[in-house]
Amino acid sequence: MKKIFFVFAILLSGFSFSQEVRWGAIANVHSSSIEGIHDFSRGRIAPSVGLFMEIPLETFQRSIYAPLRYYIYPVVEFSMEGEKTILEQGRQYYRNDFVAFALYGKFHLYRGYFENFYFMIGPRFAYNVSENRAGPTNEDAG
Fold first, then answer.
1. Residue from 55, 105, 53 nearest 75 by CA
2. Do residues 44 and 81 touch, judged by C-beta distance below 8 A?
3. Residues 86/107, Cβ–Cβ less than 8 Å
4. What DSSP string describes the chain?
């Protein structure tokens, strides 16, 4: 695991010397749940925050022959997920916090009707840093 972080850090530091690299922060609010496992569960509404970097793969010149731009788009994100189940004996809470690492390829079309359109594809790996369960146990609930 340490080797993955080391390789990731080397790649990011190497690409960061480019003049067109963009850094930024992302944040959102989402609802997450696991359907079909716990009866009558509702999603946990929680935030997700992270950092991203947009690294161009080449120096871009706007021309009619190059309608597509390519980027490497690494993301580090902290996400709070889980759900709550309502039982007769009380409420059960399942809270999971994740740190996710994603390495996307971003393809941006910047010409014509698709001027503001882009799509991203790539792997995303998440590590569960915290798992917390509160409320009555399954034996208490029957």
1. 53
2. yes
3. no
4. -HHHHHHHHHHHHHHTTSTT-EEEEEEEEEEE--TTTSTTEEEEEEEEEEEEEEEESS-----TT--EEEEEEEEEEEEEEEEEEEETTEEEEEEEEEEEEEEEEEEEE-SGGGTTEEEEE--EEEEEEEEEEES--HHHH-
Given CA atoms 39, 45, 46, 48 in this order, what sign does their dihedral have?
A: positive
Q: Distance (Å, rounded) from C-alpha 139 to C-alpha 130?
A: 24
Q: Within 13 Å and on the Cβ side, how many CA atoms surround 53? A: 20
pTM: 0.65
Distance CA 34, CA 78 (A): 19
In this predicted model, what pLDDT tens digit does every residue of 31-58 receive, in sequence order?
A: 877 666 666 777 788 899 999 998 887 6
pLDDT digits (tens, 9 = 90+) for 83-120: 887 777 777 778 888 999 999 998 877 666 767 788 88
